Amino acid sequence: MFFNSQRIPELEGLNFAERMQVMRTAADRLPVPKKFLLNIIKLVILFVFFLMMAQANDWRIIPYAIALIIVYPAVTRPLTYLLCRPDLPAIRKELEPGSKE
After folding, report:
1. What separation in angstroms does the CA of 16 have from each of 9, 60, 91?
2. I want to staple 10 with a disulfide (CB 3.0 to 4.6 A). Which of 31, 43, 80, 88 is the partner?
3. 9-40: buried (b, 16+ CB within 10 Å) or exposed (e) per residue?
């Protein structure tokens, strides 16, 4: 599992903007079942935390909000990288300057 796009071997040698462009393109091209699965997982995470926040009173919402800010990207980012990884070499080659589309 990769938590950072710098560690993905298929994106090695690209700067941050180039890596994000490749990842964005790969995420946009995910097949519908994979995209649906990813969105359901994101929705479940958000739903659980917002449900806990709705039941909390006053300042007790703050720990749930902090946990959401930490847990959401810690789960969704590696999962997105995992689902997009098979398409990264082809998309990188396609987006390289000088490549013919």
Report:
1. 14, 37, 16
2. 88
3. ebbeebeeebbeebbebbbeebeeebeeebee
